Predict the structure of Catechol 2,3-dioxygenase.
Amino acid sequence: MADDTPDVTADLPDSPIHTTGTDHITLVGSNEEDTIEFYRDLLGMPLVLRQPNLDDPSSTHLFFDTGDGRIITFFVGDRPSNQQPPRGGVGGVHHLALSIDPERFVEIREALDDADRHYNEFDRGIFHSLYTRDHNGFLLELSTDKFSIPDERKGEVLATAQRIREEAGADFAREEDVEAALNELGIEYDKVELPDAPSGSKF
């Protein structure tokens, strides 16, 4: 019987197109005031461009820098914010993960408390995360890596950790799998000390 499990590898696939990174992600927002208050004033993303939505000039297009030059944008209008979680399903967006500085993890968690923002904290094995919702109920993950992994080698590290965890018979990638992958690949790294948290795993 043939094994239909897809190969997990950082090697480029034999495909006609190869993307070079994420340029921006666009979400449909509610109104300008609430969107700026959450993404600029709470999460600290500079508002770098504001212009009409070129497909619908009756709405405004807001561009925020997420911290590394990657952009998240919102189409906003004169709509009330709605904190009920949006409907999921095929074609929907489950959540957006944003990187945060591991040295500021506790400070960021306290800022969410100060802003009366509900959140859940989980140790996900290979990273550590806070989950919260924006003013429209959209799920955001504020995530930090447990190891200092160069961005250009992250895919290689994760693919190697995948092989190691499969060889170990583990259900999901664990901290020790990533550390073993970094050592196998000869990548120098620092390990980040983060608070204890529930595993966030159903296994």
